[in-house]
Each structure stands twice: as structure tokens, then as C-alpha cells.
């Protein structure tokens, strides 16, 4: 048995190691150590964190090292180490050190929030040494890391044979199944984690818009809205995010006695994964408008100077109010608008997964992805079972919202959805994610879009050509000549 207080013990006793012992790494290491059969090696750049962890958690019997060389020696071969350091240069620095002390066949896992293109680059470089490199998205924050996160590993199928059982043992469990699956090769895991975070942004923004409407139009106090969310959490909206929203809204500030939501500055921050999702979706040509609106809503909220000089801009003169008799119906309208918009956000997220899989040649099982998001991660929800069912029934489903379950839900919700979006616009209450989701839905179902006019404009100023509805081929109108039409080379 390993000695928790010893450092520099060079006998190979650990079957798994963790590098980077800040909040995520130390919790993940403790999670690993709590599982039958695991002996966990730990190492951190500054030894102080290592000492704190081993002294605070003697029950974990960590094998601690103060140098990367001793860390490598403390691992049984083939060695497996999970890096949990600051994403970016920190990750590159640790990979560089590990490749010097690891041997071919060993496995390096990056469990940080890496950009998937970095993971693709790192996997390619590390593979040359004969060492396996696995980028694994880990979601669930510090509690998830300790009690069971949702894990999205990429990398080779061969490395997953070793890694799969270890990751399964520490992952969250949803309906008896561990929340981990081999997502695909190289950067697939981090790509899917990025999309997960993008969906998370949209989900949070939609919930925030629902709260705003219930408060400003429904006249409900935060504690009453908390009760509404608690009730919603019993039905089709059941999710971790709805649950914690109720908790936040019920919280009062100890200092002032006011609802904490009124004390917190209304400027939302971000760590960048939502931005990555939108940037990559733009590159992939996938309209993730709900996610983009959520990212932009956070950035608008943070432009304090612009907001300060804009508060006197005129709004509509008629506020939207609901009578006591209509309140129940209004709350139900908001619930349905939230549900419909949420379906759109997830549908867009899965479209981005499809497009990424195609571009980077990943074979991603979308049903399996929705299942591993049912537990451990921030967007965990019952609803994900419906997505899994939809992909089980039709693996090549073109658009999630055309699956029968979701179409029925949208049909049921759409009158409410339209009332809420129209009402918010009329009253001057921003609801960017609600309204863009509805526009997306209407855009998809439209038989004709004004894109034909856009093509005409493009052809007018740039001879970008167009297709005709009635004839094969590519055409151009001689706009500055006699305006006759000629056949042209497709210059899309
Ligand atoms: N926090 C979350 O909820 C969450 C959720 C999912 C994923 N993640 C990801 O998990 C990873 C760890 O997150 P965290 O919040 O626990 O820690 P963090 O604050 O992102 O990073 C701190 C850790 O990185 C190490 N580090 C930084 N630069 C280094 C370098 N050049 N060489 C070696 N070590 C270096 C630090 O070592 P020293 O102690 O020596 O400074 C420390 O152990 C990150 O990639 C993060 O994005 C975080």
C-alpha cells in the first residue's frame, strides 16, 4: 500500500497518475483514489499543492512526487497520466516534460479545457514518440470531478481499451450507465466538450430570459419564480440548470436581506468555450444562432459604458402586463417558449457535431453523446433521453427537431412561443435567444426564403451567379448591359 506522506518513492505502484492539483485535478485524483483497485500518483509543478492534498486526504493513499521523473517512476507500465493544468501553454509545458520521461505505449490524457484544434496538433506530435495522447473533455466542475463527471475522451481506440475502464469507474452514472464514451479520434472529445459548453450557454440564457419575463411581465418576485422553476423541474424541463436556477432565485443576501439576484452585478462573464463554439460553427457554416445569441447577450451585458449611455433611449410606451386571471396562462406560455427554444439550441448543437464529424473525419455516435450528458455535466437533463431515442431510431437524422417527439413538442409549444416573442418585442424586453430560436425554426420550415433576393444582389454587384428554380446550370444577368441572362461558371 502506498504511503500518502512519502514523496520520491521510486517503486512503480500507481496504476494512474494526475498532474496538476488545483481544484479540478485534486478532486479528480480523490475520485480516482476512492475507486476499488486504484492507486493514484500525484504531481504538481509547485510542491505546496501536492503537500496540501496528501496531508488533507491521507485516506486516498496518494503516491506523491516532487519531480516529473519520480512521478513517471511511480507509475506501472504502460503508464497512464491525466493532465489537469491550466489550458494552453501550461498543457504544452507538461506534455513536453512527460514525453521526456514516458515511453512508447504509455498514455497521456489531457483532461483540461483544451481547444480541440490544439488537441489535434498535440496528438499528432505526441504520436511520433510512440506515446498515446488522449484529449478528454471533462464536464461537471469541481463537484463533478470529485463525485463523477461526464467524460468525453478522444484519441485512439487502442488507448481507450486501457483508459475506458478507468474513466468508467470515475464517471457519473445515469440510469445505470457510466457517462463516458469514446467520442472519436484525436480532437473529437474536446470538440464535443466545446459544443456541450455552447449548448450550456444557450440553455442558461434561455432560462435567464424566462426569468426576466416572469418578473417584468408576470410581476413575480424572485422567490415566487423559484417556485415556478421548482415546479417546471418536475416536468419535461427537468434539468440541473433549472434546479440550480431555483436555488439561486430563492437565495437572499445576508447583508441586505434582498434577493441575491438583485445584488449580483448584471454583467455575465465567460471563459471562452462559448466563443469557441460560435467561431467554429461559423467556420463550419452551421447556424448555431441560439448559442451565438447567448454569447452576445453576455458580452452586451458586460459593455457597461455603452449600457450607461443608452439607458435613456426610448422604448415602447405600452408595457406588457398580465392580469391575475391570465397569470397562469402566461407562465405556461413562457414554459413552452423555453422548451421550444431549448429544443432548437440542442438541435443546433448536434448540427455542429455533425458538421465537425464530417470535416475532421470523426465517427461520432450522437445517441451515445446525448446519453453521456445525462449525468455529471452541467446540461444534464431527462430531455437527453429523448435525443438519444431520436438518434437510436434514425441515426442519420438530418435535423433533430424533425424527430417525431420534438416536432410534436414544437407544435404544442408554438402558439405560446410566438405570443412570448411577440409580447417581449412589443414591450421592449430583450429576449434574443427566444426570438432567434423562433426565427431559426421559421427559417427552416419556410418553403421560400429571401435568400433568392440576396443571390440576386450578389449577382448584381459581384457577378457571383445564381441557380434557377426551373433549369439546371449556373447563370448571370448582365446587369450593367442589356440585362439578358447568360450561362456562367459557378463562382459560389
Ligand atoms: N474549474 C472548472 O470548473 C473546470 C471544469 C472543467 C474543466 N476545467 C479545466 O481543468 C483544468 C484545471 O482547472 P483548475 O481550475 O483545476 O486549474 P487552473 O486554475 O486552470 O490551473 C492551475 C493548475 O495548472 C498548473 N499549471 C499552470 N501552468 C503550468 C505550467 N506551465 N506547468 C505546469 N503546471 C502548470 C498549476 O500549477 P501550480 O500550482 O504550480 O501553479 C495548477 O496546478 C483546466 O484546463 C480547466 O480549464 C476546469
Automatic annotation (TrEMBL):
Enzyme class, first EC level, given as a word: oxidoreductase
EC number(s) given by UniProt: 1.1.1.44
Residues annotated to bind NADP(+): 20-25, 44-46, 85-87, 113
Domain 6-phosphogluconate dehydrogenase C-terminal, residue spans: 189-480
Key word Transferase present: no
Family: Belongs to the 6-phosphogluconate dehydrogenase family.
NCBIfam families: gnd, PRK09287.1
Name of the featured protein: 6-phosphogluconate dehydrogenase, decarboxylating
Organism: Okibacterium fritillariae
Amino acid at each position: 500500500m502506498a504511503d500518502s506522506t512519502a514523496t520520491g518513492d521510486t517503486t512503480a505502484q500507481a496504476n494512474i497518475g494526475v498532474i496538476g492539483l488545483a481544484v479540478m485535478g485534486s478532486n479528480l485524483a480523490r475520485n480516482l483514489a476512492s475507486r476499488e483497485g486504484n492507486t493514484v500518483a500525484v504531481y504538481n509543478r509547485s510542491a505546496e499543492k501536492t503537500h496540501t492534498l496528501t496531508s488533507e486526504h491521507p485516506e486516498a493513499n496518494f503516491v506523491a512526487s516532487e519531480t516529473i521523473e519520480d512521478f513517471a517512476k511511480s507509475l506501472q507500465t504502460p503508464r497512464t497520466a491525466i493532465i489537469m493544468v491550466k489550458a494552453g501553454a501550461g498543457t504544452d509545458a507538461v506534455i513536453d516534460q512527460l514525453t521526456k520521461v514516458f515511453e512508447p505505449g504509455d498514455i497521456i490524457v489531457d483532461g483540461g479545457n483544451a481547444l480541440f484544434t490544439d488537441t489535434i496538433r498535440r496528438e499528432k506530435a505526441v504520436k511520433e514518440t510512440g506515446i498515446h495522447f488522449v484529449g478528454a473533455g471533462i464536464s461537471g466542475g469541481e463537484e463533478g470531478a470529485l463525485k463523477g463527471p461526464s467524460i468525453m475522451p478522444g484519441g485512439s481506440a487502442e488507448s481507450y481499451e486501457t483508459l475506458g475502464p478507468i474513466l468508467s469507474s470515475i464517471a457519473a452514472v445515469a440510469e445505470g450507465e457510466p457517462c463516458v464514451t469514446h467520442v472519436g479520434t484525436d480532437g473529437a472529445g474536446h470538440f464535443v466538450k466545446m459544443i456541450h459548453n455552447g449548448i450550456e450557454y444557450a440553455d442558461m440564457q434561455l432560462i435567464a430570459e424566462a426569468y426576466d419575463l416572469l418578473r417584468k411581465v408576470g410581476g413575480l418576485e424572485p422567490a415566487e419564480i423559484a417556485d415556478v422553476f421548482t415546479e417546471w423541474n418536475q416536468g419535461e424541463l427537468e434539468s440541473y440548470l433549472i434546479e440550480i436556477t431555483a436555488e439561486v432565485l430563492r437565495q437572499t443576501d445576508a447583508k441586505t436581506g434582498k434577493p441575491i439576484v438583485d445584488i449580483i452585478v448584471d454583467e455575465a462573464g465567460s471563459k471562452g468555450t462559448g466563443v469557441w463554439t460560435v467561431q467554429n460553427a461559423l467556420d463550419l457554416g452551421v447556424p448555431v444562432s441560439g448559442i451565438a445569441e447567448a454569447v452576445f447577450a453576455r458580452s452586451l451585458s458586460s459593455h457597461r459604458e455603452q449600457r450607461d449611455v443608452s439607458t435613456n433611449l426610448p422604448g415602447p410606451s405600452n408595457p406588457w402586463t398580465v392580469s391575475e386571471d391570465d397569470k397562469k396562462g402566461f407562465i405556461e406560455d413562457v414554459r413552452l417558449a423555453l422548451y421550444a427554444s431549448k429544443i432548437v439550441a440542442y438541435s443546433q448543437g448536434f448540427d455542429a457535431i455533425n458538421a465537425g464529424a464530417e470535416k475532421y473525419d470523426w465517427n461520432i455516435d450522437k445517441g451515445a453523446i446525448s446519453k453521456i450528458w445525462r449525468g455529471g455535466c452541467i446540461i444534464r437533463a431527462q430531455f437527453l433521453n429523448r435525443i438519444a431515442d431520436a438518434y437510436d431510431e434514425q441515426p442519420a437524422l438530418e435535423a433533430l427537431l424533425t424527430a417525431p417527439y420534438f416536432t410534436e413538442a414544437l407544435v404544442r409549444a408554438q402558439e405560446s412561443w410566438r405570443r412570448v416573442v411577440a409580447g417581449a418585442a412589443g414591450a421592449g424586453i430583450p429576449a434574443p435567444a427566444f426570438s432567434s430560436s423562433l426565427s431559426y425554426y421559421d427559417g427552416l420550415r419556410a418553403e421560400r426564403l429571401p435568400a433568392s433576393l440576396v443571390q440576386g444582389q450578389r449577382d448584381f454587384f459581384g457577378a457571383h451567379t445564381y441557380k434557377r428554380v426551373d433549369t439546371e446550370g449556373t447563370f448571370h444577368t448582365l446587369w450593367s448591359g442589356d440585362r439578358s441572362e447568360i450561362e456562367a461558371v459557378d463562382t459560389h
